[in-house]
Design a protein that fits this description.
Layout lengths: L1 H148 L1
Length: 150
């Protein structure tokens, strides 16, 4: 009976030890799973951080490219305005030159017209003088004929 009691106590102790060991194993397994979950979460967070940083970099690059495009657009606009101003200035200069030439031609025309009138006047005066001379001569001839008749 004593041996039987010892054997049962020993079996009980072994059973107790196995259950303790089982609990420890289960606890260790839970701890490992918990640690694995923490590690997995850290990895997920690390990936999210990487993606967030990549998105920030992409955004910065897009903003940089947009700024470059904006600057090019501004430069192009300035060039278009410079060209338009240049062409406007050229047109103004051509207009002024055309007006200057027109004025010169008009002055020339007026000068020629005055010269022509002056020459016509001179010719008329000469013709008048010639006419008077001819009339005078005719009168003298008539007078001479009259005297000769007497």
């Amino acid at each position: 009976a004593m041996i039987e009691k010892q054997r049962r106590e020993q079996e009980f102790e072994e059973q107790r030890q196995r259950e303790i060991q089982k609990k420890k194993d289960l606890e260790r397994k839970k701890q490992i799973e918990k640690q694995n979950e923490i590690e997995r979460q850290k990895e997920v967070n690390r990936q999210k951080e990487i993606e967030r940083n990549q998105e920030i970099e992409r955004q910065k690059e897009l903003e940089r490219l947009a700024e470059i495009d904006r600057q090019k657009s501004i430069e192009k606009q300035k060039e278009v305005e410079r060209q338009a101003n240049f062409e406007r200035q050229q047109a103004i200069e051509r207009q002024r030159e055309a007006e200057r030439i027109a004025r010169m031609k008009e002055e020339q025309r007026v000068k020629k017209e005055k010269e022509a009138k002056r020459l016509i006047q001179i010719r008329k005066e000469k013709e008048e003088i010639e006419r008077k001379k001819a009339l005078q001569k005719k009168k003298e001839i008539e007078k001479q004929k009259e005297e000769d008749r007497r």
